[in-house]
Amino acid sequence: MQRSHSTSAQGPASTRRRRAGAALDPQRTLLISCFDAALPLERMGLSARGIPCAQVRSPAHLVAPWSEATTGESTALQLSLSMRETHDVVICGHVRCTALEVLLDEARAQQAFQLLSQVPAARATLELVRRNYGRLGGDALREVMAQENVLTQLDHLLTYPLLSGGGGPRVHAWLYDERDMSLWAYDSGDSQFAKQVQLR
Ligand SMILES: [Zn+2]
């Protein structure tokens, strides 16, 4: 999955971290994912003996940039990160996503679009995709939207003090493709998603 657009090398993207192949301990992992992502957690190494890792789920796994305000959009994630020992944070998007479909097709669910597109974290992805991939359509657009949304929310995630400094949890950016049950991980060195494993 080559990205035809590359985000700024000087921006938060340069702090993206990934360690391929490192085994995760589900009991020490926090998964940030979409509300409708049917993820095979056991096969992804995110569940052990039927007990899944801790999860924060929301439409399009939106991450509000970190804020010093004690209440706000980032509070739930801040609490999730600070309440238990976390060694790895996985942000995992998926290709067949209801929330991204809403963002891609304004006319399809107007009320939901109005709501979702007002959330700054969602608008960031929407504007980036409109700006850079205006000529794509169909499955190619869906795929690129899912990739860019993972990376946009990853940039937001890396503004959290617990994750932006050294010595904190490792951060992984994944994409699950339901079409062939494949799992992809973002490689910051190559600026692309590389296939990790076929989960069937
Ligand atoms: Zn989804």
Structural write-up:
By secondary structure, the chain is an alpha/beta fold. It has one domain (24-198): Beta-carbonic Anhydrase, Chain A, CATH 3.40.1050. Helix content is 30%, strand content 22%. The protein has six helices and eight strands, in the order ββββαβαααααβββ. A six-stranded mixed β-sheet has the order 4-1-5-6-7-8, with helices on one face. Strands 2-3 form a two-stranded antiparallel ribbon. The longest helix has 20 residues, at 138-157. The two termini are 19 Å apart. The chain binds zinc ion (ZN). Zinc ion binds next to helix 2.
Quick overview of this protein structure:
The protein has about 200 residues and is α/β, with parallel strands linked by helices. It is built from six helices and eight strands.
Question: What is the topological layout?
Answer:
Layout: E1 29-34, E2 47-48, E3 51-52, E4 54-58, H1 75-83, E5 88-94, H2 98-104, H3 110-116, H4 120-132, H5 138-157, H6 161-164, E6 170-177, E7 182-187, E8 192-198
Parallel strand pairs: 1-4, 1-5, 5-6
Antiparallel strand pairs: 2-3, 6-7, 7-8
Helix pairs in contact: 4-5
The chain binds zinc ion.
Zinc ion (ZN) binds at residues 34, 36-37, 94, 97-99.
